[in-house]
Amino acid sequence: MRVIxxxxxxxxxxxxxxxxxxxxxxxHVQKESQFLGSAQDNSKELINQGRQIFxxxxxxxxxxxxxxxxxxxxxxxxxxxxxxxxxxxxxxxALSPSVGEAIKQGKINLNDPAVTIALIKQNAxxxxxxxxxxxxxxxxxxxxxxxxxxxxxxxxxxxxKRIDGLGNRDLNVGAIVAAAPNLxxxxxxxxxxxxDAGITVQDVRTVLNSWGPGKFDAELFLDxxxxxxxxxxxxMITANMVSGAxxxxxxxxxSGHNLHTWTGGWGTVTYWNAFVAVNELHxxxxxxxxxFDDAIQFPIAAAAKxxxxxxxxxxxxxxxxxxxxxxxxxxxxxxxxxxxxxxxRQRQRAVMNYLAEKRTAIAAIMSHSGLNRAxxxxxxxx
Length: 382
What we know:
A two-stranded parallel sheet has the order 1-5. A two-stranded antiparallel sheet has the order 2-3. Helix content is 45%, strand content 12%. Helix 2 (39-56) packs across helix 15 (322-331) and helix 13 (269-280) crosses helix 15 (322-331). By secondary structure, it is α+β, with helices and mostly antiparallel strands. It contains 16 helices and twelve strands.
């Protein structure tokens, strides 16, 4: 056989081998890819799921807010003006452009409770989810977005584009809870603390109304301590009977941080999400923490076994959502300073540098003239 014929046969064999091997390899790669998954696809899915959970998932907490406190009755009578006054926010992007423009021009009656009902029905009120029978509000539940979202006020104050993850520092959550017709379940819980055995519904409303906008007392339903008798700063008493409510933290810009709150006292982001969903929003889920068994520090939590909340896995509306919720929160970037804030800091830095230069010059003059007796010293030399 001639050399040229050998080469032709070899080439044909190579083509045949590639033709047979390529599909098999492609199938193998495809199977391997499906097995490992795609980081990009997984990220998109988790963000979409997490956003939906953060904004609209109540974790089944209607059983508490509606079933026990009957808060839907108060919400049904709430005018938009009152709702905005309480710090509730409205997402303008959930409304038609014509409705947004009508609100801006004052053509919609914001003193009509029916308008509030219509806004809730359109999922436009941040963190408030309603269940309706025709136009009748039957159930109300709350989501993460209630306390940890706001708007850009682009239509009117309190109405604009949604901003996920920023703590709502206008929200008077205490006043909202205080408006519930039946606070006896809260009274019953607080009475588990020995110091609160005689607490009344009016006492609870007084405490809730003492929080003020942008604040929440996450420990009240664990220890029953609504006020700090003596606030100590650097070993000195600086105030008396200070409310235990603290500013609601942001739920964004958490990437790279293990702990959710600035005190670090409430564990990881996922821990905090589970704790709030189960023990603060009173959703249907599972939460374990033996720390709450300390009857001295947490008399209510220990008595009510709030560190040992368990439901059937098929009924759990919290645990399976924590991963996507966590991922979404971590994906929300830190807030960037506004240009005017950067300019202001630059001006402040320039002023401080100018004053520092003047101080150095004055100190040098006084030192050389023998007047370095007033506490002004020359700069230290390295």
